[in-house]
Amino acid sequence: MTEPTDQDLVVSIRRGERNAFTSLTKRHYPFAHALALRIVCNEEDARDITQEAFVRVWRNLDRFDENTRFTTWLYRIVTNLGLDLLRARKRQPNPGTGNPGGEPADPGTPETILNNNDIARIIHRLSGDLPETQRIVFVLRDLQDLSIETVCSVTGLTGESVRTNLHYARRRIRERLEKEYQIEGSGQ
Q1: Which pTM does this prediction carry?
Q2: pLDDT, position 114
Q3: In the chain, which stretches have pLDDT less than 70?
Q4: First vs last Cα of the chain: how many Å apart?
Q5: Is 118 exposed, middle or buried (0-12, 13-18, 19+ CB in 10 A)?
Q6: CB 162 within 8 A of CB 152
Q7: Which residue among 5, 15, 77, 143 is the one 20 to 30 A from 64 at the CA level?
């Protein structure tokens, strides 16, 4: 027996089959949560955003356009909720280190940053300091590995705008890596 597609599950949910919503949630919760976490850099906030995203899916499923991929719609909801939280954070003074991820300010010596986990953690931390649009584009494209076309669908940006913001985000992260860890640039 083949597993139902997202579109099949949406049709079932609209017919009142609640177990279909459970299946859809289980299928997409991990990726939605990972996206939220990479946007807001805080586990508790990411859980809240992911829960709220699925609440909004449930409440607004009648508005879902079946010609659109469900994942694109869900990622747009998660992204918008993450952006709303980031904007709210900007309006509220945040005492402390200014590090939104709550990670230690010193991720280790130059020797330890060679470890892949450390590098991923550092890049994740540095992405938290990017301007809003650059951060979203960088998270969706480079950290979540979505295609340029999907990033355009999720953000509403043009392909050129996505590529431009991605270029500036990567450059900014590279410059911060070079500055903070005395890593020589690659000359690109």
Answers
A1: 0.71
A2: 44
A3: 92-119, 182-188
A4: 50
A5: middle
A6: yes
A7: 143
